[in-house]
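Sequence in, structure out. Go.
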Amino acid sequence: MTGLALLAAGTSCAAHAGTVSIAPAGLRAIGTIDPRFQSYNIEMVEVTGGRFWKPYPQAMRAWADKDRYSYRPPIDLGNTRLRGLAVALSPAYLRVSGTWANATFFADTESAPAAPPPGFNAVLGRAQWRGVVDFARATGAEIVTSLAVSPGSRDADGLWRPDQAQRLIDYTRSLGGHIAAAEFMNEPTLAATNGAPPGYDAKAYVRDVGIFHEWMLRAAPQTLIVGPGSVGDSASTGASGLRTRDLLAASGAGVDRFSYHHYNTISPRCGGRDEPAGALSEAWLARTDAALSTYKSLRDEFAPDKPIWLTETADAACGGNRWDKTFLDTFRYLDQLGRLARAGVQVVMHNTLAASDYGLLDEKTFRPRPNYWARCSGVG
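Output:
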């Protein structure tokens, strides 16, 4: 475990100040964080290839495109630059999940079908998942993922079946890999727009999570069960009508790690109207505290003493704000890490490593952005 004294004691990757002297050994530790505290996401749609958040136009004009997505090929996880830069972020958790993961079919064959079977929206082939396992091994990362919950993953009565998940676990083991942790689904509070069956409600979630927990204890007892992975301002009703409180009522005690998601806002792609002038205000930065307060209260009630993981976060959902790839967002990035570490959050997974405007790296060139260099500063 890493002493939080490092948060106050860190110096930048390149020593550049001779006027300030800090002796880390003399500072009092105020808590501990997981060695993989600063982690990251590679979205499932990046691995399979598909339509993800469209880049902003070059001109600084208002976002007016009704189509928020554009196609991108699968990310090259064998790229030397990408791997080298990811090594510098280790130790870390690599989370392969996101909205698209909820409806991705794992084709347990070398030749993946060109189109997914009914009830799924995308196909993950063996070669693509092998790339994930190889990338994790080469960079010192541990894999975290979530499972498909779409209609294709269910039996005739609508019950979730673990056969797809079992194939993924088995294939990972055959490669000598390991899934360190798994969430049942990505963002269940948004089930209505997240690939779940029509009419999916809290009762169905609790039922399915029970199946998931029982299966995990048999099939992968060494894999941590993480959940619920909710997102929203609070435990209030989400866009799908699901409340985090209702999801946890009969399932919270079964998790090994309590997870939630947080974005300060949504980007213009989804209707956000935030201005960069407010990006350094306390009101903006304190949104991290407000979200944690809500979910910590739920953790305390339904999964007491379980470590808290923030498994997906960035400045703005829907691909990020225009300034998320500039130094302006670095103040929020570092401030968020400090606030969460001080509050006892054990792991923070930034979304994403290299996709859209909130990526730590440029998605085309893999050149580091300011937040990547911030990761090299004294907070790690």
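Check: Residues 133 and 177 are 6 Å apart (CA to CA). Residues 202-219 form the longest helix (18 residues).
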